[in-house]
Amino acid sequence: MRCPFCNSPDTQVKDSRPAEDNTSIRRRRVCPDCGGRFTTFERVQLRELVVVKKNGRKVPFDRDKLVRSFEIALRKRPVERERIERAVSGIVRRLESAGEPEIQSEEIGLLVLEALKNLDDVAFVRFASVYRDFSTTEDFEEIIAEFSAKLARDNETSEI
C-alpha cells in the first residue's frame, strides 16, 4: 500500500480488525520512510462491476458514489450511519451476486429507491425527485399519493 504522505511504495500494517459494519477489514498502517500513520479499509469484491449509463457509456462501479447518493438524500435526516452502510452493502451484494458484470444505471437507481423507502420517506422523495426528474408539483403529489396509499395498506395489514 502506497503511503499517502510521501508516496513510498511500501507501508507496514500495525493493527487489523473487522470494521464496525463487519463487511470490511480496518487496517492501521505506518510508513517506515516518513513515519506517517493512516487507516485503510479492505472489502471483499466478488467481481468487477461496470455501470452502463443511459447514454451507453460504461464506467466502473464506484461504491463511494453510491454512499454519497445516500448521504445526499439523507442529509439532516435522523438515520444512523450504520443503517446507511448496511443498505449500501446490501445493494452491492445484490449487484455482485446477480451474475452480470454490466449493470444498467437505472437498475441501481431502483435499488437505491427501494432501500431509501425503507430508511426514510423524506430521503426517498428527495432521491425520487432527482432520479425520476420531477419537473412539476404534480410529480411530487403523485409520489406522496403513492406513499399515502402504501401507508394505508400497511396499516390495514398490521391491524389484521
Gross morphology: elongated
The total count of helices amounts to 5
Structural class: alpha+beta
Count of beta strands: 6
- Give the total of domains: 2
Radius of gyration: 20 Å
Question: What percent strand?
Answer: 15-25%
Please bin the fraction of helical residues.
40-55%
Low-confidence stretches: none
Order of strands, main sheet, comes to: 1-2-3
Distance between the termini: 57 Å
Order of helices and strands: EEEEEHHEHHH
The description of the largest β-sheet is: 3 strands, antiparallel
Overall pLDDT score: 86
Short description:
With 160 residues, the chain is α+β, with helices and mostly antiparallel strands. The chain contains 5 helices and 6 strands. The strands form 2 sheets. A 3-stranded antiparallel β-sheet has the order 1-2-3, with no helix packed on it. A 3-stranded mixed β-sheet has the order 5-4-6.
What would you note in describing this structure?
Residues 49-139 form the ATP-cone domain. A zinc finger (unnamed) spans 3-34. Its cofactor is Zn(2+). The radius of gyration is 20 Å and the shape is elongated. The model has no long low-confidence stretch (mean pLDDT 86). It has helices at 63-73, 81-97, 105-119, 121-131, 137-159; strands spanning 12-18, 24-30, 37-43, 50-52, 58-60, 102-104. It has two domains: 10-41; 48-134, no CATH class. The longest helix has 23 residues, at 137-159. Helix 1 crosses helix 2 (81-97) and helix 4 runs antiparallel to helix 5. It is α+β, with helices and mostly antiparallel strands and 160 residues long. The strands form two sheets. A three-stranded antiparallel sheet has the order 1-2-3, with no helix packed on it. Strands 5-4-6 form a three-stranded mixed sheet. The protein has five helices and six strands.
